[in-house]
Amino acid sequence: MIGNPFVRCKKAEYHAHGILSASRSDIFKINPGVLEVKSRFLGWDEFEDSVRNLLSSAWCVSNYCYYIKSAISNLVLDNVCYAELSFDLSDHLTLGIEFDCWLELIFRECQSHGESILIKPEIGLNARHGSEFYRPWFVAACESGVFHSVDLYGNVNIDRALEFKSFFTFAERSNLKKKAHLGEFNDCGSSLEFLKFVALDEIQHGVSILNSPVGFSILSKKRIPLNLSLSSNIALGVVYSFESYPFRRMLDKDLSFRLSTDDYLVFGRSISDDAMAVCQLGLLSQLEMEAVLSKGVPLIP
Ligand SMILES: [Zn+2]
Q: Which of 14, 168, 176, 228 is 20–30 Å from 243 (CA)?
């Protein structure tokens, strides 16, 4: 393959943390420390330290908006025409602004990007904080009309995650799409347990479910799409390599999956970069990958 043929494909991004999707070259202009990003992390704690560093300059309104703008132009550069970007519901606290001002900010920054890209903001809930922490703002966020989906993220401990069951019920009533990080750091058994309690519309990662025969057949039966973040999984040691994904079996069994970037600011790889790596390794053909990418693009009125 000459160059990267996937850059010219229109594509969709279903799993990207908003401000962590900025580009390093942009953020370097306001925080030169971003050059020192590791390519592999020894566990979640080391990853969180890195994230804290990368976001250390994000916590004033103008910089926060700058991160969002950078993330969106980055997606446009990779020909992403539809993106669900998540923003932690407690970001207004870190920014030190009123919740309503933060809602307006998210609405404004994610609006009107002309013909090139449609951004759908997503409510991000970090499992580590627990549900009580987010309760004061969750209903208002769901009813604000700003958000399109909700995503439970972080090092999801299933017992703790189940605390969020009522949040998902409310999200569904508010017509928000329900997503959670499953099968990234938790095993297949606990992920499937979670799915018994919460009917997710999509799973972020899902690797441990995918790699268990029982999990794989449950996913196929339930027809839940997976948003796979390949470079993220490798950097965090969730999988060893691109070969660890059963791409061929997923296609044969018609199991829906998309490629996503998770945190471009940390991992520095676009959807096209990962798509190219998969094809160069012979795991899928270029035509098959183009079909995967185009299938993920929703019909935009
Ligand atoms: Zn994520």
A: 14
